[in-house]
Amino acid sequence: MKPPPPLNYIRSFESSARHLSFTMAAKELGYTQAAVSTHVRALEHYIGRQLFIRYPRSLKLTEMGEAFLPTLRQALDQIDQATEAIVTSSRNRTVVVSCPMSLAENWLAGCMAAFRKKHPEIEIVLHGTIWEDLSEQIADITISTRRFDDRPPAGIPLWNDELVLLCAPTLLDGEDALKLPRDILKVDWIFVHGRQEYWQVVTSALGVDMEDYDKGLTTNASNIALELAAMGAGLVATQRSLAHAYLRRGLLVEPFPVRPPSPWNYYLTENQLSKGTIARTVREWILSRAQEDSA
């Protein structure tokens, strides 16, 4: 899996899309017009689709560019907000924790709520990310998701995650109920961009050939995939760590008891410039709760 494009490509595209001008984007970002144009072309090459229609004196977004832009703006806003949080909350009793949005919503929020009850004297800034940029450590504690062959050098795994196959309880009832592993070929599969290999691992564990499957839904977010599955839209293969809340509330069930090891895991990294004992207190709490929940 190739790494994400550099953040300056994304900023050049967003600014160009806002101004519909490479020249204006260059003035805003402090680049040359040629550099901005090169960044955008490199991004287009990366995704394999054209983002702008180029006229002699202006630009127009393509349909792909218009679809791509809102998610990137949200990601850039979150990065800027996180940076602002660091600048404005430099008090010694504040710890900033950065975590992918999916895990932040499905697990870390509850973990930090419990921490605050135990340690009300420590302020927590919880920053959910949808665009990972590890070149800048903006948080005291960073949780990132990485493949097993690309783990952070100093990263501590929260747990040894497993994959689970999930669906709404309604898919286990009626004439078309899922009874045998091969029955999954009869319903939609829900894919998450960048995590398609989850289906390869799960189908292999079930003894089902993926080549026999020809339909599905795709999204760019694990939480959307889980919501689609909870609404009965199909089956989702995901990390068990993200599924706790859905399983506990009965919104999703496991049609077949297979839990192969996940090729991706969550890792905790502490910023070397973090606030010493205070940050360590938060770190140890997160790691302790992770071990409890993985038992």
TrEMBL record:
* PROSITE patterns xrefs: HTH_LYSR
Pfam families for the chain: HTH_1, LysR_substrate
- Stored Gene3D superfamilies: Periplasmic binding protein-like II (3.40.190.10), Winged helix-like DNA-binding domain superfamily/Winged helix DNA-binding domain (1.10.10.10)
Organism domain of life: Bacteria
The answer, when asked if Transcription regulation is one of the entry's keywords, is yes
**Where does the sequence pass through the membrane?**
none
Annotated InterPro entries? LysR-type_TF_proteobact-type, LysR_HTH_N, LysR_subst-bd, WH-like_DNA-bd_sf, WH_DNA-bd_sf
Cell cycle found in the keyword field: no
Q: Where is the HTH lysR-type domain?
A: 5-62
UniProtKB keywords: DNA-binding, Transcription, Transcription regulation
SUPFAM superfamilies linked to this entry: Periplasmic binding protein-like II, Winged helix' DNA-binding domain
In the record, the note on similarity to other proteins reads: Belongs to the LysR transcriptional regulatory family.
Name assigned to this protein: LysR substrate-binding domain-containing protein
- Protein source organism: Mesorhizobium qingshengii
